[in-house]
Structure formats: C-alpha cells, structure tokens
Amino acid sequence: MASEKPTVLFQARPPEGAALTSSSLCDGRETWPIVHALAATLNQPDPLPALAEVLGTHLGAGACLLLCHYPDTRRVTYTCWHRGAVPTGYQLGVTETGPSQEGPRRFALGLIEQTVDQSAGRARLWWQKGVAGLLRNGAEPPAWLRSMASCTAIAVDGAEMQGAVLLLGAGGLAVEPTVQANLASLGAIAFHQHYLQGQAQRHTEQLRYLNYLKEDFLSTLNHELRTPLTSMMLAIRMLRRPDLTPERSAMYLDILEQQCTREINLVNDLLMLQTLESKAPVAVRQPTDLGQLLTDLADRQQESFRQAQLKLALRLPSAPVLLATDAERLTKVLLELLGNARKYSAPATVVTLALADNQSPNGGVTLQVSNLGAAIEAEDLPHIFDKFRRGARATKDGIAGTGTGLALARGLVEQMAGTIKVSSRPDDAHLWQTCFTLEFEHHGKSLSKS
After folding, report:
1. Fewest beta carbons within 10 Å, which of 92, 154, 239, 341?
2. DSSP states of 274-309 as a string?
C-alpha cells in the first residue's frame, strides 16, 4: 500500500541556528509544489528564465544566475533573476567582438570554471567579482547586487555543455548535497533542452535561407537561359527575311554565335560544378610558364576591359616563373576572376593581375586579381564562394550572373592543390579594393633567362 506522505525529492536546509520557515523544503508537503513548478519550466519554449525564477523563489534566494557554455558551438548563455524583476537571458556567440561582448564572456566562463573547481574541492569560488563584472551595466554593477552577501554554487556538467547554478542571498542558504545533485541534473536537462531548441532554430533559419537561395537561383537561371535564347530566336527570324543584305546577315550570324557560346558556357559551368562536387579531384600538372600564360590572357582581355571603360594592368616578376599545374583550369579560374572584377569595378579604374614568386607563407606562387569598386558587405564576405550565393549589391543593381562562378573557381583551385581567398578593404573615401588571392605550392623551379 502506498504511503500517504509524498516522497521528498528536493530539500533545502536553512543555515544552522535559523528557524524553519514555511518556505523551507524540509517538510515533504512543501516539496511537491517546487517539483511541479520545476517540471513545468521544462515545457516552456525557453526553460532557463522560468527555471531561474522558480529556483530562486522556492529556495528563498534573493537572486538566481544560470550560466552555461556549449564547447562545440563556443556559445555562452547566462540567465539572471532577482526578486522584483523579470528574469533576463543573454547569449554570446563566437562572432560578437568588442569589449561589450568580451567582458561578459570572460566573466561567465570564469564563474563556470570556478564553480566546477569548487565542486571538485580544487579551489574557492570568488563569486562577487565575477558576478559584478558579468552583470555590470556601464561603470557600475546593478544596485540590488550590493545586498547579496552569500552564494551557493552548483556545478552542472553534461555531455555537450558545462554550466553553473548560482543562488545569491542576503544571508546564508544551505542546500543539502542530495538536493544539489538533483538541481544539477535538472539544470543539465534545462541547458540541454535550451541547446536543442537553439539548434532547431538555427536549422530552421538555415533551411529558410537555402530555400531563398534556391528560389533566387531558379529565377536568375531562368533569366540567364532565356536571354540568349531570345536573342538567338530574333536573329534566326531576321535571317529568314528575303531582303537581308550580306552585311546584316553576317551581323545576325555573329549574334547567333555569341549567344550560343554564352549558353554553352553557362551549361558547361553548371555541369562542371556538379562534377567537382561528385568526383574526386584529378590533378593534371604540367610545367607552365605563368608569366607567359598571364601575358597571353591579359592581351585577350584588353579589348573587353577597354569597352567597360577600365584598364587591365599586368604585374610580373623580373624572372619567369615555372609552376607544375593545369594550365586550362588555371586559365578558367583567372577568366572568372577577371570577369568578376570587370562587372564590379568602378568606371575609369584599374584592374590588376599580378604574379609573385616565393611571396606566400609556404614559399610558393601567389597570383592576385584586384579591383576598385563598392565594398563586399561584411555578411557576404564569409559566403562569397558558396554555390549560388550572390551578394546583395548584385541583386539590387541587376548585375548578370548565376552565383556559380566563384564556387566553380574555388573547386578548380582546390583540384589544383591550391587555395583561394578574398579581402575587401577601403582604398579611399569612396572606393574599396577587392582582392582575390590564389596560392600554390612550388612544384617547379624558376626558368632562367634565355
């Protein structure tokens, strides 16, 4: 037969000499309200604020602070509740910089580490300085913190996180070891639930963004495929006219050839991008005179740059440079970078194609394509080589492209055992310098002058 007295799962003990109050949990009848209240917090969308308030209220604390560090994402979260106020939660990611973020992160990690060390008997928790630094608003810590004279710290350890529960009070608050263990388990569940909810939210946002990329790509691809086809169809109709002169006929045939080439190049880029993702890299390296390759490439591109009101400058070292590489793939990468620079450069500026020998950290070969124009937005810079990714400016200004060129360039460079990176820095008051840098290890020796 079941006992009529409920089992005591959580029990708090006031300090020695203090009288028991109705809020103490020594009486089993007082246990169930907090058990149900704590369990109810786990049903909240974000359980940490509710958990902090319930713990602080039912355990007779003046304030409750929950801190957690998730090593895999390097995120730090902390939640603070004190009497007479609504609990507030904070999250510090790895991208935030500046004193306003570095200080709280350092104090939070310090409090967690000290709590863990104290629970293992290795150190004493100096909580006043850490809590004051963490909750500092401007130059001063919050006024209510001055009345807090004691701290009961409980370490929370889980498979994917490490945290702490800090119970602050004006007087001493003793929590029995068994109760601390139960609270640590409960905290671990709440922190893990918070972690899973954050992961689910990030995955939802990523899925939403991927859907946006897909729709944007399909819209762009539809335009890029239809435009050449429309031009070819018009040229074919004009060629059918019986009164067409030989000069006009030659012009329409040129249009047909140009637009057909454009269509073929687009389809080939899409197929090559798919091939790069599905097959292992294949390196076909042959000794290549990079100076001669870049000279020939620059000569072929001068007219297109002149028509765009730009100048293409070529910078080569004094001695020829030999590199064992795939000349066809390297040429395609440089054509993509030069075409990208031509589209995004400000009028009447210079695009520079440069080659340097033994300048990269690995002692290899460095090639750079740089231009002057608008800045690459900070949020776009880390994703500029992503497939189908187009910057906000390209979409806004209606600049042609499918978002496959730079992804294809990166894939080809990686096949050639090289690296590619990009930087965007202010050059003067109005323009920014965007620079794409290719680096390859030296697989050949410099050619001697003939």
Report:
1. 239
2. HHHHHS------EEEEHHHHHHHHHHHHHHHHHHTT
What residues are paired with 79 via a beta bridge?
66, 89
pLDDT tens digits, one per residue of 174-227: 777 777 787 888 788 888 887 887 778 778 887 887 777 677 666 666 767 778
Q: How many domains does the chain have?
A: 3
- Express each pLDDT in 319-369 by its tens digit: 888 888 999 889 989 999 999 899 889 999 999 999 987 655 556 899 999
- Enter the pTM of the model: 0.47
**Claim to verify: residue 208 and residue 341 sit in the same structural domain:** no
Please report, for the domain that includes residue 126, its CATH number.
3.30.450
Please report, for residues 61, 128, 211, 329, 393, the alpha-carbon distance to residue 208 in angstroms, rounded to integers and kept in the order given.
42, 43, 5, 34, 21
Same domain, 164 and 57: yes
Q: What is the mean pLDDT of residues 414-433?
A: 86
180/339 Cα distance (integer angstroms): 64
Q: In the Cβ-directed half-sphere of 411, how many Cα atoms lie within 13 Å?
A: 21
The residue behind tokens 């200080």 is 103
Task: State percent of the chain over pLDDT 70.
Answer: 76
Whether the Cβ atoms of residue 182 and residue 83 lie closer than 8 Å to each other: no
How many CB atoms lie under 10 A from the CB of residue 203?
10
227 and 315 in a single domain? The answer is no
Give the residue numbers spanning the domain of 420: 286-440
**Per-residue pLDDT reduced to its tens digit, 20-69:** 333 344 444 445 566 666 766 777 767 888 888 888 888 888 999 999 99
Q: Which of 258, 278, 298 is where one domain is finished?
A: 278
Instruction: Specify if 239 maps to a domain.
Output: yes
Helix (H, G, I), strand (E, B) or coil at 186: helix
Last residue of a domain, one of 165, 182, 199: 199
Looking at the structure, tell me whether residues 109 and 32 fall in a common domain: yes
